[in-house]
Amino acid sequence: MPAKGVHNNKDQLKAHYDTVVVGGGIQGAGCAQALAARGFSVLLIEKSNVGTSTSSRSSKLIHGGLRYLETYQFSLVRKSIAERSTLQDIAPTLVKSRKFYLPVYKKQRLKRWQLAIGLFLYSALGGFKSEARFNRIPKSKWSQLDGIKQQGLVDVFQYWDGQTDDLLLTEAVIHSAVSLGCDVMEETSFTQATLGSNQQVHVEAEHAQKAFKKSCKMIINAAGPWVDRIQSAIDFSPQGPAIDLVQGSHIEYDAPLGEDIFYVESPDDQRAVFIMPWQGGVLVGTTEKQHQGDPANCRAGEDEIAYLKKTLFHYFPDYQGQYVKAWAGLRVLPKTEHLGHQSGLKSLTRPFSKQARDTILFEDNPRQPRAIGLYGGKLTAYRVTAKLVADLAEKTLGPAPIKADTASIPLSSPTKAM
Ligand SMILES: Cc1cc2nc3c(=O)[nH]c(=O)nc-3n(C[C@H](O)[C@H](O)[C@H](O)COP(=O)(O)OP(=O)(O)OC[C@H]3O[C@@H](n4cnc5c(N)ncnc54)[C@H](O)[C@@H]3O)c2cc1C
Q1: Residue 45 has pLDDT above 70, yes or no
Q2: Binding site membership of 245 for ligand 1 (Cβ less than 6 Å)
Q3: Which of 69, 122, 167, 364 could cross-link to 56 by cystine, CB 3.0-4.6 Å?
Q4: Interval between CA 376 and ligand 1 midpoint (Å)
Q5: Which CATH number does the domain housing residue 148 bear?
Q6: pTM higher than 0.90 for the full model?
Q7: Phi, psi at residue 13, to the nearest 5°?
Q8: CATH code, domain with 225
Q9: Is the C-beta atom of 59 inside 6 A of ligand 1?
Q10: Vertex 406, ends 400 and 407: CA angle to 5°?
């Protein structure tokens, strides 16, 4: 079903746009909204339905990313914390503030002092505001923490971050873009782009098995895990950075544990795993496993499901919920040299955890881009990325009469609340 406000009739489209955005995940939606808010005409095309790829298969956290402090990604953490606050203001029905518990056990990778330093830094990067504060939970209260394993527990920290429904958030951003004048076509596949002699970009796409063409001044490639495939179909732009596609899986259970989120270490390899409330049950994730081949063929593996189940019952041995399903999404990570291209979770996890999680923007021509590719990035920081893209677009499109600032446009789901 099309997202509300989206029309699927190509005959209603204009012949020419300032920009065409390829991909209706959160990044494409954010770019479309930011560009439309600056007064540019925008067409967004999505080969499936808005938000149904990676942007509905994330851990659904609107967070600074406490664990990125381990890899010194301070700038990403700072901007993500600031975005958490902006999104809580503009989308209060879509971004909920949640208590996060960090239990510390005798035998675990991150020691109590390391976590305390990390939380202090997290709080400092959040400007020591009330929502950036953290606490130690007194021992007398540990038994009230949703049944978490008490054996070996030596400390419990609590801090705050956000949780969203990523699909509803993406739909809300699209809805906002549409209300700012953006045209959106779902079930429409981009096929190729060429540059004409007049510096116009000619975009070819297919809808209902019929090819059609549009022209624009600039194309934005926000195709998530398909980014490099789309990049190679933009014939005037060089290929962008090499990437790893890293699969992350989640499992769902049907009964609730409580209202809070637990940030634990997997008993197998000490990776961070979140145990979260989700739609009346529990969501556990995630894994990290290299994906090869077509991004459409990404499925949670039996090894990943077993790994996540083991983590849940290791920490909540008396939990009575029933397993419902598992699903997977693909992170786009700029390639770095790493060990362990063999198989199995253990050999693959650490190196990927160290790869940068920020978005890389790749332009064909930095002075006057005609094609901008978005590589990687976080759901949380989509608005900041979109602003950078809109700033770059102005180099080619020139300044336009600004209609609205996305930091103050209210977002709500056109269909339901979280
Ligand atoms: C397991 C996992 C957990 C995560 N957890 C978090 C988290 O908790 N918090 C957070 O902030 N971030 C998280 N992230 C990151 C976040 O989910 C992603 O950064 C974000 O969803 C990527 O959005 P996107 O728009 O780039 O990609 P997508 O959502 O994949 O959108 C790309 C779109 O392009 C479309 N497309 C592809 N080819 C074409 C074509 N030829 N024509 C037209 N359309 C095309 C696809 O159909 C797709 O809808 C997580 C990521 C993963 C994988």
Answers
A1: yes
A2: no
A3: 167
A4: 8
A5: 3.30.9.10
A6: yes
A7: -80, 160
A8: 3.50.50.60
A9: yes
A10: 130
